[in-house]
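[step 3/7] inverse_fold.run input=structure_tokens len=230
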């Protein structure tokens, strides 16, 4: 299926109200055109409503199928490890210290292993990347100089440097999150686009929109109602 518009949405981190508002604005922007939505990971932790976010994404993905793509972030990876029966103390404390406490409160449980099995299973099976002709969607980024097909899971979920400072052309525009922008605005460069605008730190939740074969986005939309056409 050809999609007239593609929306990519940055790190949500339990900010359900911002997600709901942003998606409503995206619906207005698309004006009835066919569209797909790509989420680049980190749906949980730090913000207050992780359970609501995951419930919502699972339901919408079930309803919309390939028009609603959810990728895995490093926070989903940390939670899956912390919830595993073979976890180490380090696995548990690493997740808990990175916003896991807020997730436990959202679910009303005391241990990550007590989260709904459906939610944990969903997180485990989330893909790491989605690629089309002009763009690679991924949570953290890629390692410069390594072919896209040979990127490690560790880098796709966790990398910052040397990716963020690299000017290498990766062959596609790398659309990512993971590292909150200091400006609280999307950071568009020639080789990459960072959509983590710090929603859980007081910044907006941001979506980028593409139309057709154009490599760069045509606009940014935020939950605060800002629409920037490029």
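[step 3/7] decode complete -> sequence:
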């Amino acid at each position: 299926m050809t999609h007239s518009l593609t929306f990519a949405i940055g790190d949500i981190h339990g900010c359900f109200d911002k997600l709901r508002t942003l998606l409503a604005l995206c619906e207005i922007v698309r004006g009835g055109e066919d569209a797909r939505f790509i989420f680049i990971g980190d749906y949980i932790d730090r913000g207050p409503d992780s359970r609501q976010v995951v419930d919502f994404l699972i339901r919408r993905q079930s309803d919309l199928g390939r028009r609603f793509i959810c990728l895995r972030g490093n926070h989903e990876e940390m939670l899956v490890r912390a919830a595993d029966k073979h976890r180490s103390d380090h696995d548990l404390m690493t997740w808990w210290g990175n916003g896991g406490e807020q997730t436990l409160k959202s679910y009303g449980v005391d241990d990550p292993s007590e989260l709904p099995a459906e939610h944990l299973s969903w997180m485990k099976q989330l893909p790491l990347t989605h690629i089309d002709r002009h763009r690679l969607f991924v949570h953290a980024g890629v390692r410069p100089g390594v072919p896209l097909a040979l990127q490690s899971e560790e880098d796709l979920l966790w990398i910052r440097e040397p990716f963020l400072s690299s000017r290498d052309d990766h062959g596609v525009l790398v659309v990512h999150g993971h590292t909150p922008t200091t400006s609280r605005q999307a950071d568009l460069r020639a080789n990459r686009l960072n959509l983590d605008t710090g929603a859980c730190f007081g910044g907006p939740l941001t979506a980028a929109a593409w139309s057709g074969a154009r490599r760069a986005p045509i606009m940014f939309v935020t939950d605060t109602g800002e629409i920037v056409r490029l």
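[step 4/7] annotate
The longest strand covers residues 206-211.
The mean pLDDT is 96.
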